[in-house]
Design goal:
The protein is about 55% helix and about 0% strand. It is elongated. By secondary structure, it is mostly helical. The protein folds into two domains: about 90 residues, Endonuclease Iii, domain 2, CATH 1.10.1670; about 100 residues, Endonuclease III, domain 1. Helix 1 packs across helix 11 and helix 2 packs across helix 3. The two termini are about 20 Å apart. It binds iron/sulfur cluster.
């Protein structure tokens, strides 16, 4: 049974994290796509360090499409999984050039067919670049939404569907960023600060934590 306090939860989170937004730096949908591919198992700060440098050298899909994997891998090697990311970026850019006139496609199906773009990455791009109703579910969003009782789904993809059904369309990405911020700052994985949490009275796990639930 989904938590029926969703409106109150949204209101409190909006008050706590009014400025929460992506930490990735980008100027257009193409740069966002590259940054999102780089961000798997890599911090936003590290991705921003890399993209600040490579976006000056390579600004268009055509610039990446003609690179060889070793060259790009050398440029992004401070990032985890750099070799496979290099292959994915080059192959993604070749598809953008050949199939989409060098534009980033705007449907989930098309995005998820791009190498290096999974369901969560597609949700990020659709939500941020195309203003669609998405709630990307990363480890923080999954954990916090389950503790709050907003979802019992076993996978991130099903969790996103359940959250989308609960929320009004205009607040999907904001809610993602707010849950993520709350997961980093308060509802941490190992020691959630339930006693200091403003959501305690609305939270399924938080209420049971005082009875030994968390
Ligand atoms: S009350 Fe505890 S479990 Fe619930 S959201 Fe807050 S920190 Fe997380």
């Amino acid at each position: 049974m989904p938590n029926n306090n969703i409106d109150a939860i949204v209101k409190i989170l909006s008050g706590l994290y009014p400025e929460a937004k992506t930490g990735l730096e980008y100027e257009n949908s193409f740069q966002l796509l590259i940054a999102v591919i780089l961000s798997a198992q890599c911090t936003d700060i590290q991705v921003n360090r890399i993209t600040k440098r490579i976006f000056k050298k390579y600004s268009l899909p055509e610039d990446y499409a003609c690179l060889n994997v070793d060259t790009l891998a050398g440029e992004i090697k401070s990032c985890g999984l750099f070799y496979s990311k290099s292959k994915n970026i080059i192959n993604t850019c070749r598809i953008l050039v050949g199939k989409y006139s060098s534009r980033v496609p705007s449907t989930r199906k098309e995005l998820e067919e791009l190498p290096g773009v999974g369901p969560k990455s597609a949700s990020v791009i659709l939500g941020i670049a195309f203003n669609q109703h998405t709630i990307p579910v990363d480890t923080h969003v999954f954990r916090v939404s389950h503790r709050l009782g907003l979802s019992k789904a076993k996978t991130p993809e099903k969790t996103e569907k359940e959250l989308l059904a609960l929320l009004p369309p205009q607040c999907g990405m904001d809610f993602h960023h707010q849950l993520l911020a709350h997961g980093r700052q308060v509802c941490t994985a190992r020691k959630p600060k339930c006693a200091d949490c403003q959501l305690i009275e609305l939270c399924v796990a938080g209420n049971s934590s005082f009875a030994g639930g968390i």
